[in-house]
Amino acid sequence: MNLIRSISQQIWKNFGLTRFVSIKATDFKYVHGISSKDEENRLQLQAKGAEDHLWHDINLKNVVNDPNLCFLEVGCGVGAQTSALLSRLPKKTHVLGIDIDPKQIYVASKKLSEFIPERVTLKVLDITKEKFQENSLSGAYISWVFEHISYDDSVKFLRQLKTSVKKGGIIINNEIIMDPDLGMVVKDANGEVPSNVRKFLNALVDYQKTIKGDANFGLKNNMISCYKDSNITNFIYRPIEMKYPKNDLPNSISYSKSLFKSVSKSLITSGFISTKDYKNALNELDYSEEIIWNSGQILAFTDDNSSDNSFLGIRC
Question: How far is residue 114's CA from residue 203's CA, in Å, rounded to a whole number?
C-alpha cells in the first residue's frame, strides 16, 4: 500500500479528500465475495467483453482539460476499465479512481503503475460516507456500482456529485440487469431459459435485496427515477444489449460461469440456492445456445443548458 499512500497529498486536497480511508471487510457486504485472483480475472473478462458496447459512440476528447480538476472513476476495482477510460480522455486529464475494497485498489496500483501518479490517483473510499468539493471534477464514470448499495445512498451520492462535477461535465453510469427474462438472457436449444439458470438468477436478485442492493438497477424506470430524485434533469437513458456472435459463445459461457461462481458462496451460505441447483445451472450454461447481456446506461450532463452532442456521435 506504500505506492498508494505516497501519492501527493495536494491532489487529495484538491478534491476535498484529506485522509486515507481504511475499510474493514466486514463493513460492506459484496455479493461477489472476498477479492481473489479468480475475481480479478472475472472483472478483466467483464471489462474486455463489454468495452465496445459501453463506449461505442462516446467521445470524451472535449472534457474540460484543467489540471485542477479530476475525472472520477467510481468503483474502479482492479483497474479493469481504467485503461479504456484513460484512452478516451485528453492525455493531460487526471483520473481519480476510488473503490471500497483495499485489496482491489492494491491490485489496480500494480496494473496501472505506468500511469501513477502522473495520470492516475487511486484511493480507498466509501461513496456513501465521503464527500467531494464543489466544482472539483470534470466528469465521472460509474460502472456496476449502484447495484451494490441502497437506492437512497445512490441518490445521495448523485446529488453531491452534481455539484462536484463542473458545469459542462458529464456523468457516465452503467448498471447491470440480472432478471432472467430482461437482463442476463440465457437460451437453450428450444429458445427457453433453462430452469436452474432461471432459479439461480432469481436467487441472485432476491439476495441483493437483503444487502440493500438491486441486481436490476439498470432497468429504465429504476435509473431514471434515481436521477430524477437526485435533481439531475439533463440526461439520457440508453439500453445496452451485449449480444455476442455464435463463434464467441464459448467465451460468453466461460464468463457467465465465472460470474455464477463468484456469487455462489454468498447465495448458498445464505440459503438462497442449493449446491445442487448451482451445479445444475453451471451444466445448463455449458449447453446454452445463446447468451445476451442487457444493461442500462445513463449519460448525464451537469449543465442544464448544454447539448450532449459534444460527447456523442464519434466512435472511439
Answer: 41
Residue type, 212: K
**Domain of residue 223, CATH code:** 3.40.50.150
CA 108 – CA 102 distance, rounded (Å): 10
pLDDT for res 36: 66
DSSP β-bridge partners for residue 291: 186
* Residue 281 forms part of a structural domain: no
What pLDDT does residue 164 have? 96
> Which H/E stretch holds residue 237?
strand 235-243
65-94 mean pLDDT = 93
Tens of pLDDT, residue by residue over 217-250, are 999 999 999 999 999 999 999 999 998 788 889 9
Question: CA 129: distance to chain centroid?
Answer: 18
Name the residue range of residue 99's domain: 2-177+213-242+294-303
Residue 131 lies in a domain: yes
Strands 290-301, 184-187: pairing kind: antiparallel
Total structural domains within the chain: 1
Q: How far is CA 300 from CA 146, 160, 289, in A?
A: 15, 14, 36
Residue 173 phi/psi, 5-degree rounding, is -135, 115
C-alpha span between 95 and 98 (Å, rounded): 10
Let me know the angle formed at the C-alpha of 42 by 38 and 46, rounded to the nearest 5 degrees: 175
Please report, for residues 19, 25, 65, 232, the alpha-carbon distance to residue 298 in angstroms, rounded to integers and kept in the order given. 31, 30, 22, 11
Q: Is the dihedral of CA 89, 92, 93, 94 positive or negative?
A: positive
- Spatial distance between the Cα atoms of 183 and 186, rounded to a whole number of angstroms: 9
Query: Residue 162's CB: how many other CB atoms inside 10 A?
Result: 19
Task: Classify residue 259: in a domain, yes or no.
Answer: no
Encode pLDDT of 284-301 as tens digits. Answer: 999 999 999 999 999 999
Q: Residue 158 domain-assigned?
A: yes
Average pLDDT, the chain: 86
- Identity of the amino acid at 272: F
pTM metric for this prediction: 0.87
